[in-house]
Write the structure tokens for this entry.
Amino acid sequence: MENPRDSLFGKASAAIAPVLAPAEFGDWETAGALVTGFVAKEVVVGTMNQIYVGGAEEEEAEEPTTFLQDLGGIATGFWNATVDTVKMTVSIIPGVNLVGEEEEEEETALTTALQGAFTPLSALAFTVFVLLYIPCMVAIAAQRQE
């Protein structure tokens, strides 16, 4: 679909949006992200990525790798994660800084899109709202079980 607003998801989100208007989340994009957050809170970010960015960040198809190449990639990733974990653990000690200067995070397409859609205050309000509104369905099922 060319415009996500025209999809069934977009129409359902637009129907729910007026309920969230008093909290300043009355646009269909934000309402849709909040509705999918009921499945799992982490899905809010994925939904926003699909709505605001869509397929703009799709990567080109890579050539298939061999088993040994995959194994090498896994080993390299494990080694890098181990080294980073040790550096971060040691950096907890006051006065020790193995990590180096703080690196600036690169701007992603989603970051850029959200900076146009949210002010810093509204982004903070949205984050707090996501943390406090209805728990995800797994948490509700666990509470019911208890």
